Amino acid sequence: MIAQAADFQVTDELRDTMRQWRTRFAVLGVAGLLATVAGLFVVSPNQFYRSWLWSYLFVVGLAAGSLAWLMVQYLTGGAWGVMIRRPAEAAARTLPLVLLLFIPIFIGIRNLYPWSHADVMMADEVLRQKQPYLNVPFFTVRALLYLGGWCFLSWFFNRWSAIEDREGGSTPRRKMGALAGPGLIFYGLAVTFMATDWVLSIDPRWYSTMYGLLMIAGQALSSMAFLITVMVFLAARKPIVDLLTPRHLHDLGKLMFMLVMLWAYFSFSQFLIIWAGNLPEEIPWYLVRLHGGWQWVGLLIVIGHFALPFALLLSRDLKRNFKLLRNIALFVLVMRVVDIYWQVAPDFLKGSFGLSWMDISAVVGLGGIWLAYFLSQLERRPLLPLHDPHLTEALEHGRE
After folding, report:
1. What domain range includes position 255?
2. How many distinct structural domains can be found in the chain?
3. What does the CA dihedral 70, 95, 225, 274 come to, rounded to 10 degrees?
4. For the segment 22-52, what is each residue's pLDDT rounded down to a tens digit?
5. pTM, whole model, 2 decimals?
6. Which residues does 63 contact at the CB level (< 8 Å), separation at least 6?
7. Cβ(297)–Cβ(342) under 8 Å?
8. Which of the residues in the chain have pLDDT under 70?
9. Longest dimension (CA), the chain
10. Residue 243, helix vs strand vs coil
């Protein structure tokens, strides 16, 4: 089946629906950000920056993870990638906004990271040895390198995708395919160093060689769950209602199922290696998270982030059911929020479990603003790539 280009345009009905949701998200986002900024002055600057950091990490995962899926599709082809390409491109185009949202973390470095204080570094021999890497100027340069590199990749792929829509031909695809491989290598290295800089260095004495892989798996899972949610949302109306089939959804559901298992494998591997080693430099990270109420959050993650999605996604019929798969994807996104909070917050709250209202307002604020901007980008282009060489295959694949 070959559809006409006009069939892929955002219809007036869908555009109105998207604008309604964009307005709702924008209102939620602005309200959440205003409440969080108010907490900066009313509650505590330290709590403001802590809440901003972990909420920001969730948003980064959605945008950067979507960019990674875009590059994977250019390398591998396949029907699954064609169907999610436009939402992934729109999510990648939010990376300039993500770059701007890093500013509060830069301002709050001294509230977040103990290594940013010279007296702390000088008092600890281990930290003094890490000073060439853990210092504010180099930290800032690295952050700009990660975010700037992702912004460049987003610009490049979106630019040539637009050219492909207008002109067709093999040149755009060849250029995008040539950069996708190096781009994925950069993405993997950037996420690994980002995880070290933004999360591990909160406790600068702790380290884990598995943590970068765990962060990559988490971003891949977050973004895939998000893209599934968006596709089901679009499938309620033309033009996607006539194009997205249960078989397409089944492919995406299998990818999410695989990522749930991959995240669990990396999480358990890290835990097993550190627990078996029982080294004083490594084990305290888990000791903090297994006492004082945090152990119940960890149990929730084991059940909600792995066991329940794993059991449900075993079902072939469930992966082909639009509503049920969307609900599981949304649940996975909620558990990703819980997991990121469990990874970040205990390092600040040495002792018992704690949850500030600013933790909620920050994730609502950043998430709402990001979603509003995402929807503004999504409506700008046709919902399927007009001259993608795999387009006909993708449309026929869903009806085989």
Report:
1. 5-397
2. 1
3. 100
4. 999 999 999 999 999 999 999 889 999 999 9
5. 0.95
6. 91, 92, 94, 95, 98, 150, 223, 370
7. yes
8. 1-7, 398-400
9. 69
10. coil
